[in-house]
């Protein structure tokens, strides 16, 4: 895994890393116990999809071609909904 440069955005600070999906299995070993075990953003080099999570453990965003998202929505073991940024977003409480 390579990287470690900082990215500062309003209300968030990120450390940028580059590596393979196999590198994700031990990435949290690089940090102390206060860091979440899941990265905030993941996307492959071809940018065919993107996964984003935040501090709320019940939420993640997935960006991909419509057919990929449709298959995730249709999967019985996943709780997935379509989200349109122009519409009111789903709530979970």
What does this structure look like?
With 93 residues, the chain is mainly beta. The protein folds into two domains: 1-38, no CATH class; 40-93, no CATH class. Helix content is 10%, strand content 27%. It has one helix at residues 66-74, and strands spanning 2-9, 12-18, 41-42, 50-53, 60-63. The strands form two sheets. Strands 3-4-5 form a three-stranded antiparallel sheet, with no helix packed on it. It has a two-stranded antiparallel ribbon with strand order 1-2. The radius of gyration is 15 Å and the shape is globular.
Topology summary:
Elements: E1 2-9, E2 12-18, E3 41-42, E4 50-53, E5 60-63, H1 66-74
Antiparallel strand pairs: 1-2, 3-4, 4-5
Can you tag this structure with a few keywords?
two-stranded antiparallel ribbon, 5 strands, 93 residues, mainly beta, 2 domains, single chain
Low-confidence stretches: none
DSSP, total strands: 5
How many structural domains in the coordinates?
2
- Averaging pLDDT over every residue, what do you get? 81
Dominant shape:
globular
Rg over CA atoms? 15 Å
Strand order across the largest sheet:
3-4-5
Secondary-structure element pattern, one letter each:
EEEEEH
Number of helices: 1
**Percent of sequence in beta strands:** 25-35%
Largest sheet, in brief, is: 3 strands, antiparallel
Helix content: under 10%
N- and C-termini, Cα separation: 37 Å
Global structural class: mainly beta
């Amino acid at each position: 895994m390579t990287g470690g440069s900082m990215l500062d955005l309003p209300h968030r600070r990120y450390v940028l890393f580059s590596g393979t999906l196999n590198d994700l299995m031990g990435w949290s070993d690089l940090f102390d116990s206060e860091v979440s075990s899941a990265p905030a953003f993941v996307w492959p080099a071809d940018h065919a999809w993107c996964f984003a999570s935040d501090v709320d453990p019940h939420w993640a965003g997935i960006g991909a071609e419509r057919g990929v998202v449709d298959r995730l929505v249709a999967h019985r073991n996943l709780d997935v909904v379509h989200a349109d940024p122009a519409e009111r977003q789903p709530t979970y409480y």
